[in-house]
Description:
The complex is a heterodimer. Chain A is an alpha+beta fold. Chain A has helices spanning 55-66, 80-84, 112-127; strands at 15-20, 26-27, 30-31, 45-49, 74-79, 89-92, 99-103, 131-134. Chain A is built from three helices and eight strands; from the N terminus they run E-E-E-E-H-E-H-E-E-H-E. Chain B is of the alpha+beta class. Chain B has a five-stranded antiparallel beta sheet.
Amino acid sequence: MLASGLADTVDNEEDLARFLTSSGHFNAAGAKPAAFLPNAKNGETSVFRHGSHPPASLWQIANDHVGAARTLHGAAIVKAKHVRSVLLDAVAQEPPPRHANIVNWPSSQADPDMTKAAQKERAALIAQHAEVLRR
Amino acid sequence: MLEAFSIESAPGFAALHSLAREGSAVSTEAQTLRQAASDVVDRVERSEALFGGKGAAISQIWALANDHAEPDWDGNGAYPIHRLAVFKATAFIRALPDDLPLPEFAPEPDGSISLDWIVSRNRLFSMSVGTNDRLAYAWLDGADKGHAVARFDGVRVPTRILSGIEGIMKGKDAGVGPR
């Protein structure tokens, strides 16, 4: 059990929230692939385990994590099983409480551009299942 | 009847823009030529921004770059949009055939710009424009999916990318995979 009270392992049915700090990361149809691309420095996508918590608690986490200097447009919510279905994984990474990372993104020094293309395909596959929750 | 004429679709405009934006001129004559080309391009783009879809798209790219010009714009360590990515993305828009729909734009955490043609959640073509001349792209077409890389010379849109966009937006056989 983690300090947040959540289980060590992210369950397939858990909702993962990706905070949307750019209006370019979603449209009326839903989240775009770019919303889920990994950080270029650590190769991971930061998410928060949303579960059945009310949206207000999610926005409180966003305020703490994203900071007041940035505009928070909402969150793209996707189930962990959809992350795993594209051969990625969701692993708990606290602190901060309820934080997790999407890991195992394709990574290759030999051809960074082809690696990026592979990442975009997986990000698109995740995004097609995401529901956008507007703030 | 007079027909509307867009200078951006005129032969040579893309090359003119390339000269204006990406030259490495060192002689006085070359610098003068580049400045003249730059002035022409700027005037055309300001004009097209008022009337043309491509001008509006280019304005959106600049606005996106401006909105994501600071490091860590996502609160998670993202790089600012790279100026070279802006130049390459605008060159790509100029090079697009006029009968193709224009994309939506999104920032990527590595400082690239994503150009997205989205029909629906599972029918889309997404391409990254970064700092080099290789374009990483991926597509979803129902149960079909894939990804590849193509080289963009700044003037001509790679055939595989053209057919990929057409495949998604016009319902043609995409055929965008590596050959």
